[in-house]
Each structure stands twice: as C-alpha cells, then as structure tokens.
User: What shape does this take?
Amino acid sequence: MDAQSEQLLQGVSPDLAARVRALAATLAARNITIRVKSAKRSTVQQAALYANRANNPYPVAVPGTSLHEQGRAVDLAIVGRGTWAEVGSAGEAVGLRWGGRFSKPDPVHFELQAGTNTATSTPSLAATPTPSSTAAPAPNYGWLVLGALVAAVLFVD
Ligand SMILES: [Zn+2]
Assistant: This one.
C-alpha cells in the first residue's frame, strides 16, 4: 500500500493491519487500488468528526463508541476503478466486517469482527511518529511471495 496508508496502519491492531494489507493485495490482483483514509482516532478527533457529522456523507459514531477509537476499524478509499460492492465482499473474504451491510450503510468502513485480537500497537509508537522505514515490520516472506505473484499477474498481459 502507499506510504500514507502504511503510516495509518501503524496505529491500529496488528490483526486489522494484516487483514487490510491482505485485502489490498487481493484487490491489486484485480487492478483495484485502495488506500487507508482514516484509521485510529482519539476520542477528541471522534468528537470533532461527530460535531461536524452534518457535513459527512457517511454515518459518524458517537464519541466513545467508535471502533476507530480502539484501533479496530479503518475507512478506505478506492483509487480509480472498482466498486464498494467488490471491495466490501473482498474485505469479508479476508475476515473483516464491512460497513456496507450496516443498518446505516457505511461502505468505506471495515472493522475487526468481535472476539478477534484486541491488541493495538504501543501508545508510545502511536504518539511518536517514526519514519515508516524504521517502523516497518520484519520481512515476511509470505508477503514477498504474494507480491511476486501479484506482480506476475499484473505484468503478464
Ligand atoms: Zn469508519
């Protein structure tokens, strides 16, 4: 994913970050590009969003109740082609709960299912922005292989 998305993923549950990366890889293989637009929010940030909710095209949770405040939700954007139905079903395939199915649909929103890992990254890491190069996790060869496969699919044409 792009650098800004990766930086935002540093603030959320590692389980959520891994699933969002898997979603991005799945979609990239279908020539759909996503970005993370919003991830962990402080309660102050959620309150500001809530106060301005009349100008938001999507539902905004009451401060103190949003999974964004727990680092368990992200809001995504589609860059270029692709539909929320495609991205939503792909998100469900990697185990995320998709806001497009909420009673007040929130198609940009993806969250961890209840009962999955609640750990978030350390507060010191979240409070002190570090260059993504130093914050990057150790190499994961599974992702390298997947990346190579995605690259092969994209360049065989
Ligand atoms: Zn959201």
Observations:
- Residues 14-28 form the longest helix (15 residues).
- The mean pLDDT is 84.
- Residues 68, 73, 75, 106, 109 surround zinc ion (CB under 6 Å).
- The chain has one domain: 3-155.
